[in-house]
Structure formats: C-alpha cells, structure tokens
Amino acid sequence: MSQQMESDEANRGYAGSREAGSEYYSGQYGQRIGFVQSHVSSSPSAGMRLALAIVSLCVLIPLTGIVAGVSASTGSPLGLFGGLIALAIICLTIIVVNIAFNWRH
Q1: For the chain, how many helices (H) and strands (E)?
Q2: DSSP 3-state of 16
C-alpha cells in the first residue's frame, strides 16, 4: 500500500500532502494557470472583422443623415452636389479603413 501511494504521488507531479480538491493543491493543473498561448495570429479574427463592419455601418448611417440634412437645407443644386461629394468621400474613407484592416500579408 505504501509503495502504491509513493508511485501515485510521483505520477501526479507534486509533493503535497493534500488531494486535488484542497486549497493547497499544487499539482499539474495549478501549474497551468500561467500558460500563455505562444502563437498569436497576425490576421484579424472573424469576430473582429464583423465588429468593424457593424461599427462602420453605425458610423455611416448617421453621417449620411447629417450630410443629407445639411445639403438639403441649402436649397441649391450646388449644395446637393457638394453633399454628394462629401458623402462619397466619407464612404471611400470607410471602405479604405475596412480594406486596410482586412488586408492579409
């Protein structure tokens, strides 16, 4: 019986006198708490890409309303044309940010 207990302690990898459920347990599982993943992907995850797409839409919708409201309030065709140019610049900026974020090397 004594021999079996010694081999069990050697197999567990700790020299503590308490069992795994104890607060003083320092076995293999306790040593893995500080484990750090060594391989970190440089490309954005699917969740990050989805979040950027949602935020881009949430920014674009109010900006479209603001540009349309300001350009319609001028009452001239030149104001409407300027609003369309401003909206095109905003859209292109958002597109460039999304492409740059999702670009894979």
Answers
A1: 4, 0
A2: coil
Q: Say how far apart CA 16 and CA 30 lie, in whole Å.
A: 12
pLDDT in tens, 32-75: 555 555 566 678 888 999 999 999 999 999 999 999 999 989 88
Question: Against a cut of 0.70, is the pTM above it?
Answer: no
17: which 2 tokens?
A: 């006198």
Enclosing H/E stretch for 36: none
Whether 28 and 9 have beta carbons less than 8 Å apart is answered as no
Buried/exposed code over 11-33 (b: 16+ C-beta within 10 A; e: otherwise): eeebeeeeeeeeeeeebeeeeee
Residue 89 CB coordination number (10 Å): 11
CA-to-CA distance for 18 and 8, rounded, in angstroms? Answer: 13
Would you tell me how many other CB atoms lie within 10 Å of the CB of residue 56? 17
